């Protein structure tokens, strides 16, 4: 099977809820108001609670108290609340996956770390509305969950990296495509915005000539995250070359600060989005 085949099979199992579809329709409808969107979110108490917890967390660092969904939409903006809705329903949708708990804990920890890394880089490089980048990191590797559902033995082989092997190369070797390819196909089937699909689909492309800023940031954030996880002990330049860091204006000091930011924020985000993964801390 190719990446699309896996994604199509997965989309039959991992279905975004009717609430998500309704919220998406309202956000896409220019005639909708903040109250219209808030009213639909309020129909799902767990979703409402998650949005308010994240909105009031240090992740957004809003100086006041956000105590209603309408205020969250007003303060954070429709796009950012939509990203929080996507984050919530994505983690909820994959709760039914067939996978060992340890695998899932590691997966979500790495996803959150990548999300925090890209957000930090966005702030450091003065990218407008850097909070929006978080969702790219969180969703960037959903293809691994898809393959885990249908071919867990292959996922186990892919995880066993030698020091001269990179994850995306091993994925192509075993599957004929990368997890990024599969993730992009799934997000298309879910009809998520192209602004999310494009950077995720091209996260492994090392030709920056035509890449968007979001794609470049995800490229670097993912590799910085991997140096703390699957590629720990690898030569840094093997995973992320100096010319790519220079192209973005990222130096060793920024990388250290990004790692510190992850260490400070990881637990709070995991506790909201995936409490079982937070238990290891």
UniProtKB/TrEMBL annotation:
<dbReference type="InterPro" id="IPR013976">
    <property type="entry name" value="HDOD"/>
</dbReference>
<dbReference type="Pfam" id="PF08668">
    <property type="entry name" value="HDOD"/>
</dbReference>
<protein>
    <submittedName>
        <fullName>HD family phosphohydrolase</fullName>
    </submittedName>
</protein>
<dbReference type="InterPro" id="IPR052340">
    <property type="entry name" value="RNase_Y/CdgJ"/>
</dbReference>
<feature type="domain" description="HDOD">
    <location>
        <begin position="13"/>
        <end position="206"/>
    </location>
</feature>
